[in-house]
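Subject: Sanity check before I submit

Could someone independently write out the structure tokens for this chain? I want to compare against mine line by line before I put it in a report. The sequence has 239 residues.
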Amino acid sequence: MTTVLITGASSGIGAGLAKAWADDGCQVIACGRDPVRLEALHRYSPNIRPLSFDMTDRQACHEALAGCCVDLAILCAGTCEYLDHGVVDAALVERVMSANFQGPVNCLAALQAQLAPGSRVVLVSSMAHWLPFPRAEAYGASKAALTWFANCLRLDWEPKGIAVTVVSPGFVDTPLTRKNDFSMPGLVSVDQAVVAIRRGVAQGKAHIAFPAGFGLVLGLLSALPAFVQRALLRRMVRP
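---
Independent answer below. Compare away.
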């Protein structure tokens, strides 16, 4: 029986993925910081086992994940905070980097000895780092770091038979994105995100990006000369 570990399972994409794989008969280890929400997942399906810990705490990760032998690990917990008016807030940046980058690294370090050949690790990044969007200094940097780390790790883990997949979503309708105070083009539902991620994993993709249309637009913009990008993106700067 396939065992799937999912971080960020308390809500949003993580919760949707946990339910979908549990419905398939997989054993799901649902990780998060909210034991009440995790228990609700267990009530949804006996195939879901809740595991509550803070992934930004390295020791807590090692203690919680010791002995977790999984076939598939989906690391999708994260947060988003923006800088306003170019004022650098070091504490804010530290929080975002800790949750979005160091947290997944802590989990990988704790899981690596228990990953067998044929297993797969999926790290949820974002399209946000494809272009230098205003206010996204911390969020974009954290996702860029995670993607770079994953792409390098893929090369080092290939000889071990462990696959690494990077997921780059656009805007997904979750409790986190509902806090955004700007329009979100190409917004997709959690159900759509779950379908896209599961399809990509089943196909063994190294990179999963969705929605396709929004990704195409950002990809084309990222291919433009830097001075053109700046001219376009500068229009998004708030007064």
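---
OP: Matches mine. For the report I'm noting this point. The beta strands are 3-7, 27-32, 48-52, 72-75, 120-124, 163-169, 207-210.
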